[in-house]
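Write out the bound-state structure for zinc ion.
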Amino acid sequence: MAKTLACRDVGVDCPYVSRGETEEKLMVEVAEHAKEVHGYTQEQLEDPEMMKKVKAAIKTE
Ligand SMILES: [Zn+2]
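---
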């Protein structure tokens, strides 16, 4: 069982899908991608509204 998160599911126009064995690993992936590709700051990623949006978009495969 893997956890996935598609950028487009959080409202970003990007075909990337992050993947992780656990939600924790997935969040690390997501944060790296968001910072490198989308220019988010750590602060923006830790925003409670952002976290809520991200967690709601996580799918289990
Ligand atoms: Zn992306």
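---
The CA atoms of residues 7 and 16 lie 6 Å apart.
The longest helix spans residues 23-38.
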